[in-house]
Every structure is written in structure tokens, then in C-alpha cells.
Amino acid sequence: MASILTDLYHLLAPQTQSEGEQLIAEQNKDLIERIEGQISEQDLSSYKEIQAKLSMRREEEAFSMGFRLAVQILTATRG
């Protein structure tokens, strides 16, 4: 089941940032640039990779929870 949900998530996942994510990034642009200027490119790359993995995990879990809820609702309304 987990594999099916992961496959569905990757098929349906948005490929761009949401408007909310873009707004947060824009509001914090100066701070982000200052921080990026103070660490090595290797550390920055590693940090961004970790953040991407964390974000992907949260999105997969939220998708999985929403999918299961939808199945429960459909089952309850048809049962």
C-alpha cells in the first residue's frame, strides 16, 4: 500500500512552489542570501538536500493521510 501511495503521490505532486511558498521565500530573501553567503557551497548543497528530503517526506505523508481519508469517506458513504 505504501508503494502505491508513493507512486500516486509522485504522479500527482505539484512540480512548482505554491504561492504561499513563493511568498515566504520572497519575504525572507535578504536573510536567505546572507546565510547562503556565509557557508560553503558544499554545506549549502547538503543543507538544501536535507531540506528537500524533509519537505518531500512531509508532502508524501500528507498525501497518504488525505488519500486514506478519502477512501474512508467513500467507503462510509457507499456502505
Could you characterize what this model shows?
It is a single chain. The chain has 79 residues and is mainly alpha-helical. It is built from four helices and no strands. The chain has helices at 2-12, 19-27, 29-38, 41-78. The protein is elongated. The protein starts with a helix and ends with a helix. The relative contact order is 0.11.
Total beta-strand segments:
0
Largest sheet: none
Number of helices, counting only DSSP H or I runs of 4 residues or more: 4
| Stretches with pLDDT under 50, minimum 5 residues | none
Task: Calculate Rg over CA atoms.
Answer: 18 Å
Structural class: mainly alpha
- Strand percentage, roughly? under 5%
Based on Cα principal axes, name the global outline.
elongated
- Helical proportion? over 70%
* Terminal residue distance: 22 Å
| Oligomeric nature of the chains | single chain
What's the overall average pLDDT, rounded? 86
Query: SSE order in H/E notation?
Result: HHHH
